[in-house]
Structure formats: C-alpha cells, structure tokens
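During the second half of the funding period, the structural biology subgroup turned its attention to how the target accommodates small molecules. The most pressing case was adenosine monophosphate, which had performed well in the primary screen but for which no bound structure existed. We therefore specified the complex as follows and requested a full 3D prediction, including the ligand pose.
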Amino acid sequence: MTACRLLLLGPPGAGKGTQAERLVKKHRIPQISTGDMLREAVAAQTEIGLRAQSVMDRGDLVSDEIVIGVARERLSREDTRVGFILDGFPRTVDQARALDEMLESLGSKLDRCVVLVADEPAVIARLLNRAEIESRSDDNEATIRRRLRVYREQTEPLVEYYRARDVLAEVDGMGTIDEVEKRIGEALGA
Ligand code: AMP
C-alpha cells in the first residue's frame, strides 16, 4: 500500500476506533486518537484534562486550540514517520487546515481520508451498547444525540473538504467488523 498517512472520518459509533486497530496491525503504523489522548489527560488530571473533562462529558468539542496542540505534539514524534492513522482528528475545518499546515511543515501530506458511512439509528444502538460495556462517561443517550449533532454540524463538512483535495474514499460502515475492514482495504487499494 502506498497510502500510509490515513484519516478515518465518520460519526461517533461508526467503528473508527475498531477499524483503526485493524489498520495498525495490518500496516504497522500508529493510531492517533485525540479522544484516547484526551481521556488519558482527564484520568491523569493534567491541566488539559481538567479543561477538557466537562466539555467531553457534555458531548461538545474540546477547543481547537487544545486539540491542535495535542495532535501537533503527537505527530511530531518519530514513530509517525512511517505513517499514521488519525482517528477522531480533525473534527472541524480549522483543525483540518491546521493538520495540512503541520504535515506540510513536516514535508508530507495526507494520503487518504476514509469516511465510514453509517446510519443514525445504527450508531445510536452501537453507542448505547458500548456504554454498557466500557462505561464511558459520554456514552449516555442525551450526550450521544448531542455528539451526533455536533458531528453533522461541525465535522461532516470535512467530507467535502477532503473530496475537494481528491483524497476521499467513502466506505459503507454497516455490517460486520470483517466486512468493513475488507471494504477499507479495497478502498485503499491494499
Ligand atoms: P472520541 O473518542 O473520538 O469520540 O472523542 C471523545 C470526545 O473527546 C469528543 O466527544 C470530544 O469532546 C473530544 N474530542 C476528541 N477529539 C476531538 C477533536 N479532534 N476536536 C475536539 N474535541 C475532540
């Protein structure tokens, strides 16, 4: 596969994290999940964690300033030279622009943006199920609905952003994990 700098886009509950894990194993490139990094910051009660916690619990987006800083620090580490899978970043057009600039300054660019397409009742059901298994504090029904609205309003415009840059691959995110993994592989030409 030539495309190693990947972005997984899609609503919460579309399976980005699960598919990112599969891509990590397959291509031996690191997963970069701003959600995971922010949850770690919350758990460690760092300054960023303390600022992010209530925003995350509400289902809103943490400020671009915080998230871009977290992503920039992570992308500057050596292990991303071989490629990476971005999962949950960028989520706004300003974040996408900042990512383009970060990559440009590192002499690289995004190879492909895979958007996982999933219908809303299905992702709500998945998230409610995950709420029982993982007990994430932002997986209750009111927060789930808010996160989906935030996705539609602030993140979905990125589909057109990446289509215009000719890196978009739309993949049906419904079905089993294996089925979706296969479709992603095909979309990446692997
Ligand atoms: P996730 O695990 O990707 O669903 O992220 C969980 C929560 O972390 C989101 O609902 C946001 O509050 C916050 N978050 C994660 N990534 C970002 C981002 N790129 N921009 C803003 N907030 C984020």
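Two results from this model are relevant to the next phase. The pocket of adenosine monophosphate is lined by residues 12, 34-35, 38, 55-56, 59-62, 67, 88-91, 95, 138, 147 (CB under 6 Å). The domain at 5-188 is CATH 3.40.50.300 (Rossmann fold).
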